[in-house]
Amino acid sequence: MSDKGDGWAALVLAGSRPGVDPFAARYGTDLKALIPVAGVPMVARPVAALLDSSEVATVRVLAQQPERIQPALPKNEKLVLEPSGATIAATLDAILGDPATRFPLLVTTADHALLDAAMVADFCAKAAGADLAIGLVEQRPLMARLPGTQRTWLKFRGGAYSGANLFAFGAKEAAKAVALWRSVEQDRKKGWKMIAALGPSVLMGAVLRLRTLQQTLDGVGRKLGLTIRAVEMANPLAAVDVDKPADHDLVTAILEGRA
Predict the structure, then answer these.
(1) Which of 50, 47, 131 is nearest to 96 (CA)?
(2) Helix, strand, coil share (%) of the chain residues, nearest 5
(3) How far apart are CA 203 and CA 75, in angstroms?
(4) Measuring CA to CA, which residue among 45, 50, 85 is closest to residue 66?
(5) Which of 134, 121, 131 is nearest to 7 (CA)?
(6) How far apart (Å, rounded) are the C-alpha atoms in residues 20 and 16?
(7) pLDDT at 199
């Protein structure tokens, strides 16, 4: 629980990358967070899931143009909308370094259109007590649910995993992990570059599949002085975000009951 004992704080990253976003333009907007998914602005879906969650006490949505995002969001006393930094890492640096930030802090993204209250409950229960927790989905259940779907897989002994765009920061000390994020921010869709940034022993262990995912995170945690936990999500759809047209088609079909 948080230091005030009244639930998790949640953060939704709804920023945009610099320049023209061809993906957003395809759907009639210049902001990815406002792409309509099954008739609803994308950012509204994860925000609704967090507001519906009994685990979450407050929801903060961060975007470079908050005035553009505001009409897509409901009015709710638990919800605030604020300006973000230029990048994800810069935004997290500022949030984690702010004395007013409450912990534990759940972080997700505006493109997590399939997020629901059950996923939030699953993640919060499994992440509780860790300095840093990372939501993941193992390859086999996701491929059984959605054969042929294309994901970025990180392969370890015992399984391959895709990120679920869910992170938990248990205390401000977890900010040390953001420096690592900065080093791979432009390559976060390239799994081997992310692993290489953790050091040569971790890279070789992954290439040869000598370590499990949690053993790898334990090693990184020791270097950073943190407890880092892999949270395997019960619902494999937690790994499906809306990052390209094929994702948009898939998520729309799922929400409409066609997939």
Answers:
(1) 131
(2) 40, 20, 35
(3) 46
(4) 85
(5) 121
(6) 9
(7) 53
First and final C-alpha spacing in the chain: 36
Q: What is the pLDDT of residues 145-159, one digit of tens each?
A: 999 888 888 888 889
Rg (Cα) of the chain, in Å, rounded? 18
Report residue 148 as tokens: 């042929």
DSSP designation for 243: -
| Strand spans (E) along the chain | 8-13, 36-37, 40-41, 56-63, 79-83, 105-109, 132-138, 154-156, 159-169, 228-232
Q: Is 251 helix (H, G, I), strand (E, B) or coil?
A: helix
31-79 confidence digits (pLDDT tens): 999 999 999 999 999 999 999 999 999 999 999 999 999 999 999 999 9
Can you tell me which residue has the tokens 């990372």? Answer: 134
Long-range CB pairs of 201-204 (<8 Å, 24+ gap) are none
